[in-house]
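Researcher: Sequence recovery benchmark, item below. Answer with residues only.
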């Protein structure tokens, strides 16, 4: 198949590109700064020659949008909104204008669309959409509105010959550098991976290989459309999540952090505490109902696999360094 991935140079795009290319598919990435073969320039806002890649493709997986790993200033929040909505609109226009439109358009979304809650998990059928929760920062509702506008831009696109799926993804855990697992593991290794603000807030996650498998499942299933949660079936409180991660790496202690300490740490890392404090208790109701089998349904096993792969990468890097040193 020919698969076009707008915005495919980030962590999730790299995971998909690597796996889908290895499976024998032709993968084309649309990016602002093409640097490799099969990367095509686009700006995420306006029509251009890139649209020719979509015409005749089999699948479009749109991942474009400003990274959420930043300070949630008004300007950054507006940029998050605009980058997601405009890129989705222009992808929809390209699909609508194609002589041979793709059979399926998978549009990245986010589990952040659901409410901050502790009492019950959010699935697609019974989940509570966020935005009106009491006792949370006002700007959290804008994050929900970004997610809703993102999905709405795909929903209203006039693409009658293309099946549309919105991927309400939890955090994708991968051993690659620069991703969310990398950041959390670094905190754990420094002894800072303890409970944050009590640690009762739920963490929803999905192992990178299950994420790829879920995408492949949704491509193959012609009867599935609309919002689909991509999250492992058993989210867990942050205190347990970090305890299992520390155990996988072999770190006995994780210092706890108050909300104020989390604010200082987020400021230093130029990110936002919503990523730490919002309780994202999300499960994949539709995938499970349709028979999808998670290879990594529980976090301890997933964390163990990710740590082994991370350590394997370090070992290979060290061996390669020794070979280079010995040949000089």
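Model:
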């Amino acid at each position: 198949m020919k698969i076009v991935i707008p915005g495919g140079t980030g962590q999730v795009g790299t995971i998909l590109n690597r796996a889908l290319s290895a499976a024998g598919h032709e993968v084309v990435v649309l990016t602002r700064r093409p640097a490799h073969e099969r990367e095509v320039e686009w700006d995420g806002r306006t029509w251009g020659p890139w649209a020719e890649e979509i015409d005749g493709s089999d699948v479009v997986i749109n991942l474009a949008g400003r990274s959420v790993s930043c300070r949630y200033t008004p300007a950054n929040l507006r940029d998050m909104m605009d980058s997601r909505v405009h890129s989705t609109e222009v992808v929809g226009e390209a699909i609508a204008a194609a002589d041979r439109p793709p059979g399926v358009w998978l549009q990245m979304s986010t589990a952040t669309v659901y409410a901050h809650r502790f009492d019950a998990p959010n699935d697609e059928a019974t989940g509570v959409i966020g935005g009106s929760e009491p006792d949370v920062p006002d700007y959290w509702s804008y994050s929900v509105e970004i997610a809703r506008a993102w999905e709405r831009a795909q929903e209203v696109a006039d693409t009658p010959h293309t099946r549309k799926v919105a991927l309400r993804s939890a955090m994708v855990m991968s051993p690659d550098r620069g991703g969310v697992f990398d950041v959390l593991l670094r905190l754990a290794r420094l002894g800072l991976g303890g409970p944050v603000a009590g640690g009762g807030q739920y963490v929803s996650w999905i192992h990178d290989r299950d994420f790829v498998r879920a995408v492949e499942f949704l491509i193959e299933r012609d009867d599935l459309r609309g919002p689909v949660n991509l999250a492992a079936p058993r989210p867990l409180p942050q205190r347990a999540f970090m305890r299992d991660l520390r155990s996988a790496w072999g770190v006995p202690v994780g210092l706890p952090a108050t909300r104020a300490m989390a604010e200082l740490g987020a400021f230093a890392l130029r990110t936002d505490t919503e990523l730490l404090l919002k309780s994202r208790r999300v499960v994949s109701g539709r995938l499970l109902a349709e028979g999808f089998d998670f290879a990594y349904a529980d976090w301890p096993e997933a964390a163990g696999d990710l740590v082994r792969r991370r350590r394997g990468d370090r070992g290979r890097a060290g061996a390669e360094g020794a070979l280079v040193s010995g040949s000089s």
